[in-house]
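Reading is simple: each integer encodes one residue's backbone shape. The lines below illustrate:
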Amino acid sequence: MILIAAISRPIDRLASRARIKESRVYDVAHRALSAIQVVQAFTSETEAHREFVETSRESLGENLKLYTFQTIYSGAVNVLLAVGTAIVIYVGARHALAGKISVGDLVVFTTYLASLYGPINQMFQTYGMVQSAKAGMRRCLELLEHQPEIRDRPGARTLGRARGEIEFDNVVFGYDGNAPVLRGISFKAAAGETIAIVGPTGAGKTTMASLLARFYEPQHGRILIDGQDVSELTLKSLRGNISIVLQPPLVLTESVRSNIALGKPGASIDEIERAARLARLEPVLDKLPKRLDEIVGQGGHSLSQGEAQRVTIARAMVKDAPILIMDEPTSALDAETEAMVLAAVQESMRGRTTLVIAHRLSTIQNADRILVLRDGVIEEQGNFAELVTRGGFFSQLYNLQSGKEVSALRR
């Protein structure tokens, strides 16, 4: 018992450090493999290999310390039991020589002692293994017990099928709390209205969409859907009313069918096929041996960027939510496919409140209203024709893009 008390803390400490170093190895390996094309493109294989070898060496060193300590502990247990047996035999032999017990009694007692020490030895060895495993289990429990920053508040209400009215009321948000990305954003979108959000990179366009889906909480102000503060709604009911087309397109290691039905697991085959047709996925499916049942691989690596984007558009269509968020929905598409997909997207927007985040200004000409975001504030708003003729920042962006497109055509 004294030995166990003495080794418990050192084993726990060494095991915890070994698990931390192991997780570091997995992290380095995952980063390198997930970005293997970037590593190869920039000939960084040597640096990636060096980092992996260094982290592996550190992990091996910590595991060797743990193994060495466990081996010393195992040896100490065996020595302790051997010394105990020797003492018993010595005392028993003295008693036998003095005639207090018979030699047979001594032999029987020693046999019983061996039977007792076997399980005790096993218990001690198992205790050392348990202490090591406990550190790994504690790391897992720490992750499982970690509470997400964004979660349902006490008494949160369930949002039914929303009409789709959206309001940003003086919303202020910054990722680090000191440098706000959005500074007093206020606007209203009526149900079924299409709102386009444009502006330079870093203006806060995607941040606005993330706040609406409550991936983050604003530091000040409110965001309302149908007059209800989204922070007072359950996350499941809120996000159940929103379809999102993200950038870059995220495709899971599943079949095309499962990827399309991600937001609506019970979707019928007719709904999935219709969404695939609307997203112009038929040419893609024709190239796949199993069509909708084809496994597209981790991260959708068997699909091109444009094909993966069409899968995410079909996913948003099949969910059939009253609010649709499209973050650069055609950025990875060629001009011909973009025209086809935009026609389908226009059809899917009908009857839904839609937020379209766009850099290509030509894709938002049919938006009911355009919000021009710059330095975290709405600098201009209006329809396409109004903003082009106004001569403001939007007009500058449009003229700049138009000039680049003309130059590209001439080349």
About this structure: The two ends are 84 Å apart (CA to CA). Residues 23 and 358 are 39 Å apart (CA to CA). Confidence is low (pLDDT under 50) at residues 404-411. The chain has two domains: 2-144, 166-410.
